[in-house]
Batch of 2 targets.
Target 1
Amino acid sequence: MIQLYGLRMSNYYSLVKALLIEKQVDFEEIKAPPTQKDDNLLRTPMGKMPSIGVDGAYMSESLAIASYLDRVQPEPPLLPADPFLAGKVVELVCHLKLDIELVARRCLSEALFGGQVSDETKESTKAEVAKGMAALDRIFVGGPYAAGEQLSLADFYTFYTFGLSGIIMKKMFDEDILAGHEKIQHVMAVMAEHPSVQRVEAEQNSK
C-alpha cells in the first residue's frame, strides 16, 4: 500500500490524492506538515508536500508521482497514447504550474496567512499571472477537456491550480482570474463533478 504524506490543505496533496483515487490504487494518508526535519527531508528533499512512500522508498513532486502512477496502474491513463499528444499534456501542465500557480503563490502568505508581501511583488505577480493566462489561452483546448477530447493529467492540474490561484488573486486584487476564460471555466465545472475530485473535496470538508 502506498503512503501519502502531507496535509489536506495543500492543493498538490489534493491533486495527488485525486490521482490515487482515479487510479484505484490503495493508499493511506499520513499527516506530515512541510518541515525541515530529517524524517521529512528523507521523504521530500526540499521539505515540501506531498510525498509518497512505496515499500520503504520515497518520492516527492506531484508530476513525478503522476508519472509513476501512470506506469504502475496504466488504466485509466493520465496521458494520451500518442507521444506528441502526451507531450502536449505535459506542456500544458508545465504552464499551469510554472506560469500560473507558482507565480500566484508568491502572494500566498498575505492572501491566506496574515503575512505581508511587498508592493513590488504584488505588481509583478499580477502582471506575470496575466501574461501566463494569455500564454495558457494559446494552448488550452477545452474541447471538452483541457488538452482535447480525453480526460488527462492536465485537467487535474487545471482544477487544483485555479482552486488556489483563484482564491489568491481574488483576495489580493479583487480579480476573477477566470473571467473571460470560458474554456477553462468549463473544465473547472466538469472536474468539480468528477468522482475522484468530489471524494477529495468531500473528505477535505469533513476533516
Target 2
Amino acid sequence: MQGDCALHRETEITSSLLRSPTACEKPCCPELKRILEKNGITDCMFAFIGGGKMADCLVDGFFSAGLIHKDSVAISVKSEKSKLSWQQRGYENVFTSNVELLSRFGKGIVFLAVHPDVWRAIITELPKDAFVEAKLIISVMAGVSMKELQSDLSPYNSGIVRLMPNTPVVCGAGTFLLCAEKNIGTKVEVAKYLTVKVGAYKEIDEDRFNVATTLANCSTAFIYTIIDAMADGGVLNGMNRTEAIELIARGVYGAAKMVLVTGVHPGMLKDNVTTPSGATIVGIRALERAGVRRAFIDAVCECTERLNEM
C-alpha cells in the first residue's frame, strides 16, 4: 500500500546528485513569469538580504532548476570579501548596503536570509518604508515568528511567508516548511511553486514551526553525522572511505524513500530487515546499548529549545 507523506512536490527525488544549470537566457523562465504576473508581481527580481549558506543553497537550487538567471538575483552581504566571492560566480548585483539593495531591486520578491541576531541590527538601520515596494517577502530566518516579522516590516502589508528550507534544496531534494500570513491571498502560490521546483513543502502552523524545523532542517546534520560515523566503521573493517560513504548514503536514501513511499512505520521496516540471531539485530543491540535512540530524542528536544530561545 502506498503511503502519503503529506508533502507537496512536483516530481520524485531522483538519484542524481546535482543537476546541470538550465536557467533561461531571460531574467526568469516563462512559467515563473506567468505565475508571478498571475499573482500581481511584475518584477522578476529575487532580492536576498543575506548571502550566507542558506541564500547560497536557494540561489543554486533555483538556478539549477531553470527558474532564474544570474542577472535576476540581487544580494546584500556584510563584507567586500563576500561580495567578491559572489561576483566571481557571475552574480553582478551584489551590495554591502541593504538600503541600496532594496532601493534598486526591492520591488519583486525579497528573501530575508540572515541570522536572527543580525536581523535585529538590520531592521533598526533600515528606514521604516524600506520594504513598501516589495510585492512578496519570504523569510527563511529560523526562530523569527510571523508576529515579529509583521511588527518589524510595518507599514509593509503585501504578504509575508515564513519558509524554512534545508540544504538539500541545492540538489533538488529540499524540504520546505511553509507558514503564510493570513491576508496574503493567492501570493502564497508563488512560494509553493518555487518549493516544488526544488523539492517539496509542508504547511505548518506557527506553534509547531520550531520543532518541525528541527525535524526537517537540523536533522540533515544528524544524518551526515551518522554517515560519517558509519564510514569510520567501514574503514575500520577494511573498506575504502569513498566507497563506504557512497554505500551508506545510498542505504540512507533507500530507507528514506521506503518510509515515504510505503507509509509503513519505520519500526516495522526495521523489523523486516532483522532476522533471528542475524547480524542486523546484533547491530541494533549495539546502538541501543550506546543510547543512540535517547541521544536522538535529546537532540530534537535541545535543538527545538534553542530555536524557541531565538
